[in-house]
Specification:
The complex is a heterodimer. Chain A is of the alpha/beta class. Chain A is 30% helix and 18% strand. The chains are: A alpha/beta, B alpha+beta.
Amino acid sequence: MAASLFAALRGIDTIQVGPVGTLPFASGLLDFIGVHPVRTGRWHPNPWEAIAQLRQDESDHPYAVMTTREMRTAWKQMLAFLTDSGLPYVAHPERNMRMINPVGTVKLTYAVPRSMMAADEALRRRPPCLLVDFAGLKGFSARQIAARLKLHWPALRTTRLPIPALEGELQPERLARFLERRDHCRELAKAIKSRLAGAQAVGLPAVVGLHRAGPHFDLIQRRLGVPLFEIPTLLPSVPGRRLLDTFSRQLPRLGVRTWYQYAVKQAQIRADGALHFRIGSAADGFWVQSRAAILATGRFLGRGLHAERTAIRENLFDLPVHQPDKRGQWHHKDLLHPDGHAINRAGLMVDARFRPVDKDGAPRHPRLFAAGSILAHQDWVRQKCGSGLAITSAYAAVAACAQIPRGLEGTHAP
Amino acid sequence: MAPPLSFIQQREPAGDGPLKTTVLIIGGGVTGTGLARDLALRGIESVVVEKRDVNAGASGANHGLLHSGARYVASDPAAAAECRRESLRLKQLAPHCIEDTGGLFVAVAGDDENYIADFPGLCARCGIKAQPLDGREAREMEPCLSERLIAAYRVADAAIDPFRLALDNMAHAVQLGGRLLRFNAVVGFNLAHQRIRSVVLRDDITGRSQEIEAEVVVNAAGAWAGEVAALAGARIPLLYSKGSLLVTGTRIAQRVINRLRHPSDGDILVPGGTVSILGTTSERSASPDAIYPEIQEVDRIIDQGTAMVPMLATTRYIRAYCGVRPLVSCGEACDDRSVSRGFALIDHGQADDNPLDNFLTITGGKLTTYRLMAEKTADRVCQRLGRGDACRTQSEPLPDTVAGRWTEPGLAPRTWMERGNPGDLLLCECEMIPQAVVDDLVRTLARQGGAASLKAIGLRSRIGKGPCQGTFCSQRVAAYLYDRGVWQDDRGIDELRAFLRERWRGQAPLLWDISLAQAELLEATHCGLFGLELDPVDPGG
């Protein structure tokens, strides 16, 4: 998504092919970098300081290949796009924000939906605060969150609200669709307000609307008269859905041809160097030739990589994958081992222009780029850098792609 | 919000004096729990102490196979005949724990033809019925079988749920006055005059110690029997043989399928409700602790199993696990007259060095013969006590109790649909486990005097056993337990960590293809978002 956006902003004629990937699993928090080094588990309030140290410690990390200026521009363009598209995101340029999780832990992240912003301030000031949850919403318990946070935040209270119109199980998205109606939001605000009892902030699961999330959040907050913040839920999450809907709606308006319903079934580098992609299914596919391509296919969940019992492969071009020698080295015996799992650093090695390279460092193709979690030498889970990696590497890859002179179709550029 | 559960039982504070019981049984596996029931039915009071949870050792880490006996006809005819008798008995007395699937023994091209030729005669010698089938018949019965079959026999194997078996045995013993102390490790013995005067326990949850005085102490600690005996100065020379097994994502066959050859790796496929279990291996281990199913074992099991069932090469595996078989070399202390060669009943009163007149060890054996092992041990206990009725487990049906029922695949969803309560939310969507089942399990655990941990709930149900391996249900159950007032403070973080780590042990060697993508989601959720790998977990401590 990020690569399509940056390509469109540069006026590059772009086709985005493939299912929507892992965006529905996104929490809505846009991490830049929270932890470095992984082994010590050290949280960094200032992401730029963490990146400076990371570049010294891990020269192969994708963040070490980019300039700070590229990173700042990437974030600026992405956040502006989201905000202009009706999904306002906020970030403090020089610091990570603190956010609450559904298990009651706190994490640092860089940019958050405006609907989550007040959690950062609330965690700092710890005012009397009411945490709300909903009967029927599984895996989200205000009591659970408060039980942990109360150790340092005694003024936390909890309440559970029934939604009589929605009997039984409540999936987050179902609740969010229910709160697409203003009258439902007014009723919710009324119910919460009756239980405020002096609370100076209110937290609730991230379910306040989908397409009308911004105005409806404002409506509830205004009626409560105190800061309101959303808390991420278990997956699939509504903030992830909001991001997906925003990109799906806006990218075509920017000229991107979004073919989410199709998949790339086959990719070829032909003898003349041209990049060809068979789109669709084996039965009804068609071929597309492109001047350049960016692999933003993700890892195993996104199907950019595939693991067999003996080795890891890149799915489209069978590109060389940096990986541990044996399967026995892929994972630690302890899920939570502080070193992280070696397989998480497997992926595509790239050059300074984000082109996948062979073991000798030569690019496989002059106009084939890669971005996001498929890149090697990073552990986005443990470093808390998933979104930042996707956004900044997409920006860098598109920037490199944009430098290709026109008229090189079908040839190998030097 | 539903009211907090009122039946949450706090752990009993240690009293001033030692607890007293007639028989103290060390080990809450299927033998220990079976012995508790056997003694209770004879009117003998007992306490079972278990350092972890019921079936935490090899009793919970096996195929769940009720042997017809055919597997042992060549290597151990006595054990084979014993299996035949006990298998028939358990099918009558504990049918709710058993799926009487029947079984096949199949050989494929290249297998030892002498063994194949001898097999029917060896079965007949042990009284085991083995009906010959041709390859076509066998494949009609089980289409997953290889086309390269060269011999097939039908036998009376069955699948048995070892968790339900142990939990029901324990529950019945408790109904009759017995007692279970979970998470209580034996840390010492007080000896006097060639007897165990008291046993010192440490509660692993509270950290408190307490003593128990018993007239007879039975060491039924399985692979840990040697370590327990050593605490009393007794020596049991044990070797440890690790066996690993794999759980498939779906049920591959309706019957038990055995390879018709000398027992080896990866040659038994056992149905287990909605899945199949493929195993096992035999690897010498230096210790019964810190064992893992290793990648080379996993690959060997799959490669060997594929010869009889080709689809095992490509099917999805959702979990691996392993257990340790204790191999006993007990010398003159073994009582060969009263017990089979399949297991060892050691009377430490007959030992040359440091005899202990009120100390017995029962170890070895097979799941299929657990009842017989309990019976022989109880006979010896009664002999030592000079009282006790005759064994009744030979004829008394095992009650179907609530304690063990939720381990049955499919029961929770069936019950949930029958009840039709839309407010009873499914906490585990893979295995369709609703809130009511979790409530039931919390009550059961309270009756057993223990806390409701995620691991304990998982052991007594199908929670976390589906394809997601706890990714989502762990947090859903955690949230629910907070809502019900079962958990307080920050206990949930440690619970999630412990539960996910336990599930991971079985996932890690199987992570390729779809399972790896699933694991990626698990780590993204619990580490990427929740930060559970970090200590301290929160920024700033």
